[in-house]
Amino acid sequence: MLKTRHTARLLIATALGTVAITPAFAQTTVNTAEQAGSSTPGNTQRERFDGTADAGDSDIVVTGSRGSANGVTNATPGGGLMSVQTGTKLRSTVTRDYIDVQAGTTNSFTLIRNLPGVVVGSGDPFGSAPNLSIRGLSQTSLGFNFEGAPIGDQLSYSAFPNEWSDSENIGVLNLTRGSTDITAPVYNSVGALLQSELISPPMTPGAFASVGIGNYGLRRYFLRLETGEIGNSGIRGFVSGSRTYNEAWRGPGVAYRNHIDSKFVKEFANGDTISLVATYNESNSFAGARNPTLAQFAEFGKDFSWDDTYAPGRNTYYRLRANDRQSLSISAPSTFTLTDSLDAVVTPYYLYTHGVTNGASNLNLAGGFYGTEPTGPLVAPGAVVTPGSVTAATPLGTATMMNVDYYDQKTYGQNSYLRWNVGAAQFRLGYWYSHFVHTEKAAYQPVSVDGTVRDTFGKVGSVTLQDGRILRNFAARIEQNVNGVYADMTSKLADDKLLINFGFKFVWVDRTATSELPGTAMRTDSLSAKPLPQASIRYSFDDRNQIFADITTAFRAPSAVSSYINIYNVATGIASSTPSGNFNPEYSVGQEIGFRHHGDLVHFTIAAFNYDLTDRLVQGTQIVGGTNVGFAVNVGDQSARGVEAEIGLVPYKGFSPYVSGQYLKATTKNNYPTRGVFLPTAGKRAALSPEWVGSAGLRFDNGRLFALVEGSYVSSQYSTFMNDQELPGYGTANASLGYRFDTIGFIKKPQFTLNMTNITDEKQLVGIQGVTSNALPTRSTDGSTLIPASNPTYTIGGGFGITASLSAAF
């Protein structure tokens, strides 16, 4: 049962969503007019010159359509994966046509899994915690925007798509690979930018509900209430809530999720909009699954899990792996007309997240170290001494502890720009500011004889020193300020056939980290500042055929707490992880050139890309004192080039196929420094970079009966910098089947949907959790040192999952 404080936060977030007044953020992707239930009035010329927007003859905001229960039109080519694109950059758009036939547990990552170059590996059947990489770059090198705000962890760059919104409320997903919009409030989008927008609230009042059940005890309930236009105020909105529960598919464990979305829109007669979007999410789980090495997976398979029973001294009990996280996101994307040719786009935002990701260990009660300071005997209220643990080295014995890793994050910021139309050109000038504070502290909670602890957040009942200080192996406060200025110009020439965009962005990232633990690295400062020029061009031969090209730059500062403060071993006082002092940001220069065709039946895009990275940062995890700790490794320079393509058909007699693929060659250019020497990694393939990625799907929809079969394949990829171990290639197939019934009284368009994931129930590895330098003992380049082996860890893919749901509008 969820804690009372969680319920209180749900009520607060509901109240916030109820009183919110919010306008629709301008969609930058255009679909056919049939795609939507309503269109947004206003000056459509505003987005015509956006060098990254894809504009056609109609500017459409996707809404819940009354033709189907939740916005499906079956008009988008490729089964909802290939909206028409006419901009200067390589973009794919996922619409309601595809989203609505997926399970309600789906999130933004799993919805883009079939797009070119996208690799999504999920450790459970319902896709609740997927890993994402694009063009061989993990999510730390990708940008994420939700309703105009930079969503996700501003320090580690990790994203949590389950927190953004419920899938029933996702209106459109835009994935721009390579060069991203210069106005986006991100700087780390080396590989791609994923933008998510909620549906536009409908003009008429109503409701939408869904109930789903599945294997592994899955239960999910969703309800959305829609106000319609409130009087003649021009204000309309919706508030929705959902609850999800499921048991772990392998090993012991359960997971809960409660979520609220709200969006309100105020539209003015001249097309101005004011929006307020608020979402709240809380998730709680006790994870029984473990991430194995190759040897462990070969021995135990999917049964490599934490123990389901507890005894004193056993730190492998699953309930000691508590994950509890709450998040709140508020943004207000708005547009204001200043003159006939000048307007302002303003997006203030606030993000809040806190939670724990806990592990376990056995602690010597006779003492240890607080940083580098000896502690003396520890005060451990309620600790149970492990039988047989009293020895000369541990005179007070040892006791099992829950290793608490508590974090708290607050971000507020704004992103604003002026947009000035002058003849055949548009100019944009903007400023982005963000202030971010990250606090993270460890603690040790004594485990009682029944395997429980007093407080999973570690605020009361934790182990202390004799003077009352809480024992910690790390404590960090990291403050970050981001300032960005940008300007660009877009011009239409040759009777609008030629579209040219070029711009410049300069971003400063200033970080200060402090630690309360005695020792070194009690304070570190870093400043990353980079110029980010970009340019793009598109030429239309006719209404159906276009060529486009772009060049772009991006960077990101080192991620993870361990990049800035010491993490200590409490038993020895020796730092298990120390800041390298190398705060050089990862910097990239990329180019793309492509061709797209939009025919009456066939749509396809093909593009070649190249990027070069300096100071490439690879993210990984390691266990320090029983707790998973993230780290960033600078592996030097890296280059990558490849080709990607996608093809889809306009629905023909109900059928709409889609196929995508990518070839990638990513190479490490430098030898890897370690232990004062170098490993011979230059010229080897980059880790996390599969050579081939492909997917295919076939959709059938006649308005009543619909079905979808889709599959994907990812070739092998190296999990070490030395290329001496790899994740084998793997494939996954999914299917959906459903039926839309006639309206019955006030129940509009009820729909039954059956979703199946991993339909062949493959037991396989689908992701690399922890990259290492070498899996086999290896000599340094000068032959002086034998570098010991370190085994990578992997994610086991979710087994067969099935979900049946019934939904309807009211």
What's the structural blueprint in terms of helices and strands?
Elements: H1 4-19, E1 38-39, E2 60-61, H2 77-80, E3 91-94, H3 96-99, H4 108-111, E4 118-122, E5 130-134, E6 137-138, E7 142-146, E8 149-150, E9 170-177, E10 192-198, E11 206-214, E12 219-226, E13 235-247, E14 254-267, E15 273-286, H5 294-300, E16 322-331, E17 334-337, E18 342-357, E19 359-364, E20 369-370, E21 373-374, E22 398-422, E23 425-446, E24 475-493, E25 498-514, E26 523-540, E27 545-556, E28 567-568, E29 575-577, E30 586-598, E31 602-614, E32 617-624, E33 627-634, E34 638-649, E35 655-668, E36 672-674, E37 677-679, E38 692-701, E39 705-714, E40 717-718, E41 726-727, E42 730-740, E43 748-757, E44 765-770, E45 778-779, E46 786-787, E47 793-796, E48 801-809
Parallel strand pairs: 7-10
Antiparallel strand pairs: 1-2, 3-9, 4-5, 5-6, 7-8, 9-10, 11-12, 11-48, 12-13, 13-14, 14-15, 15-16, 16-18, 17-18, 18-22, 19-22, 20-21, 22-23, 23-24, 24-25, 25-26, 26-27, 27-30, 28-29, 30-31, 31-34, 32-33, 34-35, 35-38, 36-37, 38-39, 39-42, 40-41, 42-43, 43-48, 44-47, 45-46
InterPro entries: Beta-barrel_TonB (IPR000531), Beta-barrel_TonB_sf (IPR036942), Plug_dom (IPR012910), Plug_dom_sf (IPR037066), TonB-dep_rcpt-like (IPR039426)
Signal peptide: 1-26
Keywords: Cell outer membrane, Membrane, Signal, TonB box, Transmembrane, Transmembrane beta strand, Transport
